[in-house]
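Dig into this one:

. . .
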Amino acid sequence: MAKFVALYGKPDDVEGFEDHYRNRHLPLVEQWPHLQSWSTTRFTGTPRGGEPAYHLMFEAVFASEDDLAEAMRSDAMRQTGMDAAQMVKQYGATATMLTGPDF
């Protein structure tokens, strides 16, 4: 199993960011080849009551690293990446993308 993870810093425009993410970005994600499942977490705090380092985490699951690699080369992934770049810029967020196998 392999995963693609995106961590988004808190945007300046939270409402606009979340609307774009839900209604424009996720429909692009659902077109990724070999995607088995995905989930999104909105962070609201830390165990000690502090501000979280990230606002949102997206996690996509693939059966293998080969499936993930093929998805990364797809037009659907490129379109999603371009949309993510636009979304981050438009709403004042940051994005960190990570990939790797289950440990």
Notes: The first strand starts at residue 2 and ends at 8. Residues 75-91 form the longest helix (17 residues).
